[in-house]
Write a structure and sequence with these properties.
The complex is a heterodimer of chains A (about 170) and B (about 170). With about 170 residues, chain A is mainly α. Chain A is built from five helices and no strands. Chain A has one domain (about 1-170). Chain A is about 85% helix and about 0% strand. In chain A, α1 runs antiparallel to α2 (about 50-85). Chain A starts with a helix and ends with a helix. The mean pLDDT of chain A is about 75. With about 170 residues, chain B is mostly helical. Chain B folds into two domains: about 1-65, no CATH class; about 85-165. Chain B has five helices and no strands. Chain B has helices spanning about 1-45, 50-80, 90-115, 125-135, 135-165. In chain B, α1 runs antiparallel to α2 (about 50-80) and α3 (about 90-115) packs antiparallel against α5. Classes of the chains: A mainly alpha (about 170), B mainly alpha (about 170).
Amino acid sequence: MKKGTYNLSLSFVGVLADITWYLYAGWCVICLLIMLFSIVILPKFTPPPSVPLHILNKAKFFLSIINYSVGIFILYNLRLFFKNISRQVYFSNDNFKRVKMVGFGFLIISLFETVIFFSLSHNWGSLEYGNFSIQFIFRLKFAILGVLVLALSRVISSGMALREENSLTI
Amino acid sequence: MKKIFDQFTISFLGIVADVMFYLFSGWLLIGVVMILYLFFLNFTGVSNPPIRFLNTGVMSFLYASFGIFIFYQLKLFMKNMSRKNYFSRDTVLRVRLVGFGLIALSIAEIVVNISYFPKLSSLAFGDLMRLLLFNLKFAIVGLIVLGISNAFCYGKSLQEENSLTI
């Protein structure tokens, strides 16, 4: 029963990694196509309402491209990490690299989320202190996740050292 | 530099777990006060007690008690990590308890949400599927944590093997 639960969790992790990867990649492609349509094709048929909005759309587009590409980068590495975990390969150099990349990816996403939010959603003048701090805390969730994943990478490197030591002593 | 960064990440996460633990404790207290206030109103014979108080109280109680449990385990896990006690029996136990806690939270959430429906027969198939889909997020995270706990378990066996070979 106990072993069954852990085996189930292992196979679940592998399947989930695949499903999330395909869903996210598909969603990113759809979002980028919609943005491309609204920025490149739509203004040819309808005149742009005002210059600042046009510029805002372009800025949003480029920031979103960066955000989505970091998201794809994170999910690709997570997918490979979880695939390794489901194959019961826990402490390998590849896993260590993947986890580190995911951790730094989360930190970058947190930074970009903050930049996108503060540069596009609000007037600086209308931003009150309370609102500012609440929004900042909400944007920190990815940073905390990133730090947690980086701590996990420390565990993996320690496991790698143990495994190497173990393989040397026969 | 790398050592300082590692130390920083572990102590930062320890502080986050501590803060979250105390926040959830406060939340539990608020939930208990709300439920007690409603019982007090019931006893004093108020004809129309505010039912939203009960809903908020029950949900606060549920989330806060699971939150306290999970963050307490995380707190102890971080303490082990700061002592560089990565692959001990205690660490594996903490990680597994976090995983099972998340799965239990998900099940409790589904049960509470279903109990809000006036009649079980009025629960359409679509409602049930929506409830399951939206409330399964914690169960998914729990299963992932259980998957990662296998890595800790493997590390523990490696360490035991290592300490046996002289």
